[in-house]
Amino acid sequence: MKSNYVIKGIFWILVYLLLAGAPLLILLLGEMPEGREFWREFSVALGFAGLSLMSLQFVLTARFKFLKAPYGADIVYHFHRQITFVALAFFLVHPLLLFVFSPDTLALLNVITAPWRARAGVTAVLLLLALTGMSLWRRKMKIEYTRWRIWHGVLATVIVALAVTHVVLARHYLNTPLKQTLWITYGIFWVGLLAYIRILKPILLLKRPYQVESVLPERGNTWSLTVKPVGHSGFHFMPGQFAWITIGNSPFSESEHPFSFSSSAEQPEMLTFTIKELGDFTRTIKTLQPGQVVYVDGPFGHFSVDRHPHAKQFVMIAGGVGITPMMSTLRTLAHRGEKHPLTLIYANRDWESITFREELERLQESLTLKVVHVLEKPPAGWDGEKGYINQAILERHLPKSEKPNTVEIFICGPQPMMNAVEQALSNLGIPFGDYHSEQFSLV
Ligand SMILES: Cc1cc2nc3c(=O)[nH]c(=O)nc-3n(C[C@H](O)[C@H](O)[C@H](O)COP(=O)(O)OP(=O)(O)OC[C@H]3O[C@@H](n4cnc5c(N)ncnc54)[C@H](O)[C@@H]3O)c2cc1C
Fold first, then answer.
1. Which are the contacts of 177, defined by CB distance < 8 A and separation ≥ 6?
2. Which domain range does residue 214 map to?
């Protein structure tokens, strides 16, 4: 299965490179404008490269399952973030080179006298700076996530539209019917993509509603929300995957949130998500009533034991609500009657706030499961692990693996815990490919 994902992964990287390079290839077709020096052409090439990278950002966040499966959603989002810096650098260096090698172009910065092509270009660069700043410092700027997401989408669309306007008005590279046709085709592709994301996908979700079956309290200020498909058969998922949920609104709403499944993948007719009260949206979960309509877009993610059929043992390292994908995994393996040796290292603040504490005890009877609780504030007389998960705790409890790929390790929890665990695993010489992380915070 791993090699299948590798082949698909390489294939989509090649497609990405082809699409990213397409505008440059179009430029090279046919005659070039005459009498223009190298640096001017180079600057233009950077501008086109920046435009195609920005346009491709919509593909990366369009939640195409075929695209995310080989890498995992968090890697794709990480790539999306890094590529914005590359596009921004191209967008900034493009005019800078012009200013240095053709100082007369500095006049284009004067928005009162500059032609519309320059106004469009300058505005696109300024908006891209604003978009990047808002994403980097969203929390510091106290911008609520859903509001940020709406602005992010709007700004990105306006930037690409302005950049295309800039290219069209500049005209230098649209001088043959072939180039014009190719550019129009490229434009139709992007409009089609936007229509898919904003219109077609929500319509498809509208036809596949779910309804709330129950909302049950769990330890640790969390709630288990169970939903069932209405008028359709739902979907299958792998344990450890997640879905985007929209509640009470139409699927056209921007207020959708990602949650890992906590239920067994062997019972896809009922989906359970276990949700910790953290903010505006998660605080509303406990108020949901049976029968209320919910939209579920999934499954997504690659954080699954099912992707590692060769493994002899699995280790799960969870902190707080990071237990949810592990719980789905344990419930699924119990349903399947699997006998793999399993270790769960589970960090919590105190004994009372351990979500699924009782069920984990029961699961130790049906699975070959060792649960190691690590408590920040242990009760009196506690002789288990204390404090935060660290290298010494991992050394005590990790099974010894003779070969790479035999013990697969899954990590999910607060970011500082994940960073510390990854560092400790690296110090212990565990191969990078043997541990897998799921981040609960995308921005
Ligand atoms: C792959 C994945 C799986 C997750 N699984 C679970 C789970 O099983 N149980 C659970 O309790 N939580 C899970 N989360 C986290 C959950 O999505 C956020 O806690 C929730 O969206 C917070 O929303 P809020 O409005 O209540 O909080 P807010 O206070 O508005 O947000 C708190 C933080 O959560 C993040 N966040 C908020 N809204 C979103 C959104 N729409 N999309 C992405 N991130 C957002 C932001 O970083 C934000 O700063 C998961 C997140 C991801 C990315």
1. none
2. 210-300
Which protein residues touch ligand 1 with a CB less than 6 Å away? Answer: 144-145, 242, 256-260, 273-276, 278-282, 321, 324, 438, 440-443
CATH number at residue 347: 3.40.50.80
Residues 181 and 126 occupy one common structural domain: yes
| pTM for this entry | 0.81
Give the largest CA-CA distance in the chain.
84
- Comparing C-alpha atoms, which of 258, 245, 374 is closest to residue 320? 374
How do the pLDDT tens digits run along the chain, 443 residues long?
556 777 888 888 888 888 888 777 777 776 666 667 888 888 888 988 888 888 888 888 777 777 766 777 777 788 888 998 999 999 999 999 999 988 888 988 888 889 999 999 999 999 999 999 999 998 899 888 878 888 888 898 888 889 888 888 887 777 777 777 777 777 788 778 878 887 888 888 889 999 999 999 999 999 999 999 999 999 999 999 999 999 876 667 667 899 999 999 999 999 999 999 998 889 999 999 999 999 999 998 889 999 998 899 999 999 999 999 999 999 999 999 998 899 999 999 999 999 999 999 999 999 999 999 999 999 999 999 999 999 999 999 998 866 777 899 999 999 999 999 999 999 999 988 899 999 887 66
Site to probe by mutation for ligand 1, drawn from 278, 296, 328 as the one with most ligand atoms within 8 Å of Cβ, is 278
**339 and 276 together in one domain:** no
As for how many domains the chain has, the answer is 3
Q: How many CB atoms lie within 10 A of CB 227?
A: 27
Q: Which of 145, 150, 273 to mutate to test the pocket of ligand 1 (most atoms within 8 A of CB)?
A: 145
Within 13 Å and on the Cβ side, how many CA atoms surround 353?
Answer: 18
What torsion, rounded to 10 degrees, do the Cα atoms 278, 281, 284, 290 define?
A: -120
End-to-end Cα separation, the chain, in angstroms: 30
* 63 and 147 fall within a common domain: yes
